[in-house]
Design goal:
Elements: E1 3-6, E2 9-15, E3 20-25, E4 27-28, E5 68-69, E6 76-83, E7 92-100, E8 102-107, E9 110-111, E10 114-116, E11 124-127, E12 136-143, H1 151-156, E13 170-180, E14 184-192, E15 196-205, E16 209-216, E17 224-230, E18 233-243, E19 259-267, E20 280-286, E21 291-293, E22 299-301, E23 304-305, E24 308-313, H2 327-339, E25 344-347, H3 354-363, E26 366-368, H4 383-400, E27 408-410, H5 419-435, E28 440-442, E29 461-463, E30 465-466, E31 469-470, H6 481-484, H7 494-503, E32 508-510, E33 513-514, E34 532-533, H8 535-546, H9 553-576, E35 583-587, H10 617-621, E36 627-632, E37 637-639, E38 643-652, E39 658-660, E40 663-669, E41 676-683, E42 687-689, E43 693-703, E44 711-719, E45 722-731, E46 742-745, H11 750-757, E47 761-764, E48 776-778, E49 797-802, H12 823-826, E50 829-832, E51 841-845, E52 853-861, E53 864-869, H13 880-893, H14 906-912
Parallel strand pairs: 24-25, 24-35, 25-26, 27-28, 29-32, 33-35, 37-45, 46-47, 47-53
Antiparallel strand pairs: 1-13, 2-3, 2-6, 4-13, 5-34, 6-12, 7-11, 7-13, 8-9, 8-12, 10-11, 14-15, 15-18, 16-17, 16-19, 19-20, 21-22, 22-23, 30-31, 36-38, 38-43, 39-42, 40-41, 40-44, 44-45, 48-50, 49-51, 50-52, 51-52, 52-53
Helix pairs in contact: 2-3, 4-5
């Protein structure tokens, strides 16, 4: 039987430059405070600005685009220590390092051969049989410059990029010597099917012989035993189609039903009753589940159609610079994801340690690892690239194949290939299916950015686009329906799927959906105690302090966060409204510290929910769930006297049918007092909604005849415990007429100046275009996409901060953040002010620019008063909300409450409006 000797403890480290230090292993050089200053050598964009405002490189400036490593080193590092351990006689001995970069082993100066190929994603194991004498020197040679491997493809990936995980150097996890029997079992894999279990066993023996192989598990109807022949070296055996026990439990979402499988090897002459005596045995945990296509192009678990609610993990662990290496730590990480509604985690261009899979197995969560590859040009084209990644693929499948949580794998992120690379991809897909047919494989996530469509050889497709059809609501450049189409609650991707299904019948789900940026929560600065220095966040903090924004900064964060959550919800529900789509993969719930600093999360980089109402897990989980009623609203805004008409559906991807009478209600909401009052209610016909399907619930017909003032309402639909709600705004249908006391103009001309000089009121409302607003940006409904650092062509707008208690909004109820009723106005231009000013509606800016901007501001000018709008409301009167806002503006300007305090010089106004 095996026996272990831990090698955890103090080692002597020597770097290639001569640096020497005593370090603790397991651990990294960063964690041991060994290395050099991080000068930004491993930028995601080599041309990225390191710190200077003019973009010039300054090696002493802080890195502005990502966290800074306190210590960094790339190259060979030697770790040496003395060991006093003698394996038992006639046993084989091995050294195992659970996770490293590239690793070699010297025993007393003599190189030990690898027992199996090591990779970034799987352990490094060396056989040291006959090399240990009881007092030995071990030297581990770790090299994170990846000699002989595809360096650039690796360090560009989340496995080794300094943008997130860091290109650490060291050894992590299990580090030990161990002994095994002469004939032992290095690999035991359970391959479940619907009603049977196939077992793959690899036996390692120094010589040819016959042995008794026995398999036992409570999941099996009976134990298996047989005499098998093994050859010198490795022998791979398959025991196929073993019947399952009648009461065997299936592994499922939120049901971590696991079984042990034990394989024993003993002498062939040993009696069957003592099959494990005098031999070797290995026990692994596994789960009984099937995962694949339901036969109609949807993902299915145990034959039940599911909706994938995935989140991308890019290896962001700022305290250590590497993934956790214990099951309790990973349980905590996955439970945080699950608290937001996540049922699957995609590991963006990296594969986590086995402890992540063990935690997911027990929790009943799905995982989608990827190879350590991000090459958007010519993946697998070189021999070293193909050789390494094919090896990594095989080792991942062999090492992690027992984990039921492991359901899908791709060969990397956003790969592009040439002819040779495509052929090699196809060979790798075929190889993966032969080795392990229990999970699904695809050549890449977002292959060719979706511009070449689906891949015939892949089992599923995940992408942003299908040729020219976009499969998400927002992308770089603010394309997508959320910013380009008047809002509703019925948009889906059926039109794209009508094209996809012409040639592709397999599952499809969204890719890196969301990416709505949130202004930084500076309270996280107090959380950094490890290897990362958040110099990029401190830089933003100092700029906000210089501009005098800190006093209200939490309001800015709250407003951008609420708008981000609104965007995420529309992304999720648009996919749930698409009956052919298998789910959605977000990017992301966690802030991304690099690529220009992409703070897109409900959680910060430490995976802590941000201390704001918008980031509460239950608010996100309210729409990110498996059973969700849908009301297909044509729009969110109405006028009194209209009828609210909309079809209702139930998207049920839970485990049971939902039955009963759907009930709806419309409640009045007061944003200031938070009072709630039901004003209308009703039911739809009784229905049964089977699991794994959409079901029509009928049609809502609600006459809007119970009020006459502007108000915000909430429409709620409930069935059998499943509930969803939508905001609705209803406004008077009264004519919109400018009062005689107000001078409305598009230009601050002589007539307008005369009105002001005489103490009058001017409403300055130019056309919202660059010609009339030369100092302005094009705003959009959502916050910035990902980061201006990654997509510098973006204007940078971050949504509106609205003074909701301002008297102007007495007839236009609003929150302090942008919501759907602001869509026509929010998508107009925003003025860039020469200095910070008080505004009724502020357009917030990304932290890359921090420009003072506004869309609605007021002031005194001369002897009079002026209100300036960049909305161009006179061109938006086809929208109920624009008519209502203009009516509210007129009423305010005609009232005694219009008494602005700040001064606006005529010359300044003429610079803004021309």
């Amino acid at each position: 039987m095996s026996r272990e000797y831990s090698l955890a403890g103090l080692w002597q480290a020597e770097l290639a430059d001569g640096t020497r230090a005593q370090v603790k292993l397991p651990g990294t050089l960063d964690e041991n405070r060994v290395g050099h200053k991080d000068r930004g050598a491993n930028q995601w964009h080599p041309e990225a600005n390191i710190g200077n405002a003019d973009g010039a490189f300054d090696p002493d400036a802080p890195i502005a685009t990502r966290f800074t490593r306190k210590y960094t080193y790339e190259g060979e590092a030697r770790f040496t220590r003395q060991v006093s351990w003698t394996p038992d006689k006639n046993k084989r001995s091995f050294l195992e390092a659970e996770r490293a970069r590239t690793l070699r082993l010297l025993v007393n100066g003599r190189e030990a051969a690898p027992f199996c190929p090591g990779t970034l994603s799987t352990p490094w194991i060396f056989e040291v049989t006959g090399l240990l004498g009881g007092d030995d020197e071990l030297t581990l040679i770790s090299d994170n410059s990846y000699p002989g491997l595809p360096h650039d493809e690796i360090v560009y990936s989340s496995a080794a990029t300094d943008e997130t995980q860091t290109n650490w150097n060291g050894v992590l996890g299990r580090l030990c010597l161990r002994q095994e029997e002469p004939v032992w079992i290095p690999e035991l894999t359970a391959l479940p099917a619907k009603d049977t279990l196939t077992v793959r066993v690899i036996l390692s023996s120094p010589q040819e012989k016959k042995v008794r192989l026995t398999l036992r598990s409570d999941a099996l109807a009976e134990a298996y035993t047989d005499i098998v022949s093994v050859r010198a070296g490795e022998t791979e055996l398959y025991v196929r189609d073993l019947p399952l026990a009648a009461d065997a439990r299936r592994w499922d979402l939120e049901e971590g039903n696991l079984y042990d499988l034990t394989a024993g090897v003993s002498p062939a002459e040993a009696p069957e009753s003592s099959a494990f005596a005098g031999g070797s045995e290995r026990t692994v945990a596994f789960g009984l589940r099937t995962f694949g296509d339901n036969g109609s192009g949807r993902l299915a678990l145990n034959g039940r159609t599911i909706f994938l609610r995935s989140e991308a993990n890019c290896g962001e662990f700022p305290e250590t610079g590497h993934p956790p290496m214990t099951v309790p730590e990973w349980t905590d990480v996955l439970e945080r994801y699950r608290s937001y509604g996540v049922n699957c985690v995609r590991f963006h261009s990296h594969c986590p340690p086995e402890e992540a899979f063990l935690a997911a197995d027990r929790l009943g969560m799905l995982l989608q690892p990827e190879l350590s590859c991000w090459n958007p040009v010519d993946a697998f084209e070189t021999e070293e690239s193909y050789r390494y990644f094919r090896t990594e693929l095989e080792q991942v499948l062999r090492y992690l194949g027992n984990h039921p949580s492991f359901v899908m794998l791709t060969f990397g992120n956003e790969l592009q290939v040439k002819e040779t690379g495509q052929q090699r991809m196809n060979e790798m897909l075929a190889f993966a299916r032969r080795l392990d047919p229990t999970r699904l494989y695809a050549n890449s996530s977002n292959f060719f950015y979706g511009k070449q469509g689906t891949d015939p050889a892949s089992d599923f497709y995940t992408g942003t686009d299908y040729y020219d059809d976009i499969l998400r609501g927002t992308s770089a450049g603010m394309i997508g329906h959320i910013n380009r189409q008047y809002p509703n609650a019925k948009t889906n991707y059926d039109a794209a799927f009508s094209k996809i299904r012409e040639n592709w019948k397999k599952p499809v789900f969204g890719f890196e959906v969301g990416q709505f940026e949130v202004l930084p929560d500076f309270s996280e600065l107090e959380s950094f105690h490890g290897i990362s220095d958040p110099a990029n966040l401190r830089r933003v903090y100092r700029e906000a302090e210089r501009l005098g924004l800190l006093e209200r900064w939490t309001e800015y964060v709250e407003a951008t966060g609420e708008l981000s959550r609104i965007g995420y919800r529309e992304e999720v529900e648009a996919v749930m409204r698409t009956r052919e789509m298998s789910g959605i993969s977000l990017l992301g719930l966690q802030d991304f510290p690099g690529q220009g600093t992409a703070l897109v999360g409900m959680m910060n980089s430490h995976l802590q929910p941000k201390p704001y109402d918008f980031a509460k897990p239950e608010r996100f989980r309210a729409f990110f769930r498996d059973q969700l009623p849908l009301v297909l609203l044509e729009r969110y805004t109405y006028e009194w006297g209209e009828r609210l008409q909309a079809d209702a559906e139930m998207a049920n991807y839970g485990k049971k049918a939902l039955t009963g009478t759907p009930a709806w209600k419309l409640t009045a909401l007061d944003n200031l007092t938070r009072s709630v009052n039901t004003v209308a209610a009703g039911t739809l016909p009784e229905v049964s909604c089977p699991a794994g399907a959409h079901t029509s619930l009928g049609r809502l017909e609600i006459p809007l005849n119970f009020g006459n003032t502007a108000g915000k309402y909430e429409l709620t639909l409930t069935l059998d415990g499943a509930q969803n709600s939508w905001p609705v705004w209803i406004y008077p249908a009264d004519p919109v007429v400018c009062p005689a006391s107000v001078h409305e103009t598009k230009l601050l001309d002589e007539e307008a100046l005369a009105v002001l000089e005489s103490g009058g009121t001017v409403y300055l409302t130019p056309d919202s275009d660059p010609e009339h607003l030369p100092r302005s940006i094009q705003a959009q409904f959502t916050t910035d996409f990902w980061s201006v650092g990654t997509f510098p062509f973006q204007e940078g707008g971050m949504g509106q901060l609205i003074e909701k208690k301002h008297p102007l909004f007495a007839q236009f109820p609003t929150e302090s953040h942008t919501n759907w009723q602001w869509w026509p106005m929010a998508t107009q231009r925003a003025l860039i002010l020469p200095r910070p000013m008080e505004a009724i509606v502020t357009e917030m800016d990304s932290y890359a620019h921090m420009r003072p901007m506004a869309q609605l501001l007021e002031g005194r000018c001369g002897n009079g008063r002026i209100l300036i709008s960049s909305f161009g409301l006179h061109n938006l009167q086809q929208y109920p909300e624009a008519r209502a806002l203009l009516r509210a503006i007129y009423a305010y300007l005609d009232s005694k409450e219009f008494a602005p305090a700040q001064e606006l010089e005529a010359e300044l106004i003429r610079e803004l409006v021309q």
